[in-house]
Amino acid sequence: METLQQFLRSDRQAARVARLLLALGCVAFLVGELLVQIHPRPYVFFPDFQNDYNAALALHHGLNPLEPAVTWARTAHASADQGAAVGGIFYAYAPIFALVQMPLTLLPLYPAYVVWCVCSLIFLVVSVYACLRVAGLRPSPLYLLLLATAIGLMSIVRLEFVVGNVDIFLLFLVCTSFWAHSSRRAALGAVLLGLACVTKPVLLPFIVFLLWKREFRFALMTVVAFAVLLLAPYAVLGGQALRDLPDIWRYWSNENAPYLNAYAPKNVLARLFNPNPYVQPVINVAALTTIFWLAVVLVVVVITAAVVSPRRLAADARTLFEIGLVATAVLLVSPLTEITYMFLLVIPLLGCYCCLRAADWRTPGLRFVAGGTAFVWLLLCTMTKLPIPWVSGTSVASRLYYSLIPEALPLYLMIAFFALQLSLLHVLTGLSTAGAIRQLVRTAPALAKQWVVDASTAFRGVKSRIIRQAQEAQVSRVR
Asked: What own/partner pairs with CB < 8 Å and gap ≥ 24 does 404-412 have?
């Protein structure tokens, strides 16, 4: 008996040591990857962070951080000899993000870049943790580090560290906003999601998602936070800076749509049909871009609305899965989806993982979907190193190949992952996408009526709460 107890005790100790070593290995990998990417170079190789840093400096001195970008947006026109002067060389976010980065201006440029990258690594780990909490899980440190390491293997993580972009921070804001809501801190969640939407308005469909899910209070607070965070800096910057921002958003959504490193359907269509400095269009009819893009938006919105249940958010894997599905839809309907925007795919990856983790693996088709999810993750890890053959020439075939193969692969990955998530939902619920669309069309009038009733009830409750709080405040002042 004593020998057996000694054996079990030694076995438990060995397991603890193994877990500790594995956790240390994950930390070493994440930190090592960060150090490799931020190693000093003889030239500035973090242009996005430098733009943000300069904007924060301008804001610190009371200057308009949008002036360089709006000057470009108002004078630049797509032509064959302007390929080098792309819009990405300017700060093009709302001034509130420059305000967030203002503390970094206390440091010189390179140390500030290192601090931002370290913060980005922390944001990445917290984002994974927040997603798991949204799914109702409380991961152990080792479990969290293993998943964070799997995400850290993605090639866009290395790219994000190199350029010092904002996308990990935005992923952090989106994930923690839903975590805060699930933890009954809706006001905090609204501020976080509002800041994300102000920084990149392509995230505004998340507010529509909240309305569809009957989270009216959360959605209303997010709209208020969005408006406050958007307008507050202009009290100092003045009305001219406020007029600059719509021009910048218009330029980056339209004239800059053919940008070579952008992969949304609109971007690929713009390279096919719009005059641009990157590739000769197949047909110079810009209206076709708008027509086909609106068709894509309609299809994606209808499919998403059909499969996302109109029930309130809960702390379960289905909620995280639906947030991830909406994140994928956002990338597909966005007027601009650059490679680093694909950080949002972290949410559906974790959503699929949580659903697969809780499912019965004997379910027909589940193993195929699991394999497909793993393959998507593998492609995200190797996407920048895929051996894609290139062609040269000005023939229609060459231009089609260039626009639809090497410069559209991330788009096909997003579409395939969107379809894979629909397939997983079909396997888990038994309801096909076509059946869900038919059901949506059949019940649309009843859904619309019920949505109006729910919205009216919710807003009456908000109004009553505001009146009650005002009365309580008045009574306390009288006392």
From this structure: 404/268, 404/272, 407/260, 407/263, 407/268, 407/271, 407/279, 408/263, 408/268, 409/263, 409/383, 410/263, 410/337, 410/339, 410/342, 410/383, 411/263, 411/264, 411/265, 411/267, 411/268
pLDDT, tens digit, 9 for 90 and up, residues 50-94: 888 989 998 888 888 888 888 877 776 544 344 334 444 678 888
Number of domains observed in the structure of the chain: 1
Whether the predicted pLDDT of 174 surpasses 90: yes
In this prediction, residues 305-313 reach a mean pLDDT of 92
Higher-confidence position of 463 and 250: 250
| Tokens encoding 379 | 């492609």
3-state SS record for the chain: CHHHHHHHHHHHHHHHHHHHHHHHHHHHHHHHHHHHHCCCCCCCCCHHHHHHHHHHHHHHCCCCCCHHHHHHHHHCCCCCCCCCCCHHHCCCCCHHHHHHCHHHHHCCHHHHHHHHHHHHHHHHHHHHHHHHHHCCCCCCHHHHHHHHHHHHCCHHHHHHHHHCCCHHHHHHHHHHHHHHHHCCCHHHHHHHHHHHHHHCHHHCHHHHHHHHCCCHHHHHHHHHHHHHHHHCCHHHHCHHHHHHHHHHHHHHHCCCCCCCCECCHHHHHHHHHCCCCCCCCCCCCHHHHHHHHHHHHHHHHHHHHHHCCCCCCCCCHHHHHHHHHHHHHHHHHCCCCEHHHHHHHHHHHHHHHHHHHHCCCCCCCHHHHHHHHHHHHHHHHHHHHCCCCCCCCCCHHHHHHHHHCCCCHHHHHHHHHHHHHHHHHHHHHCCCHHHHHHHHHHHHHHHHHHHHHHHHHHHHHHHHHHHHHHHHHHHHHHC
Q: Does 466 fall in a domain?
A: no
Residue 439 lies in a domain: no
Whether 465 is covered by a domain: the verdict is no
For the record, the structure tokens of 109 come out as 């440029």
Structural domain that includes position 245: 31-431
The C-alpha atoms of residue 414 and residue 379 are separated, in whole angstroms, by 11
pTM across the whole model: 0.89
Question: Is residue 379 one of the residues assigned to a domain?
Answer: yes
Angstrom CA distances, 48 to 52, 53, 297, stand at 6, 9, 29
Residue 203, amino acid: L
Per-residue confidence band for 193, with pLDDT thresholds at 50, 70 and 90: very high
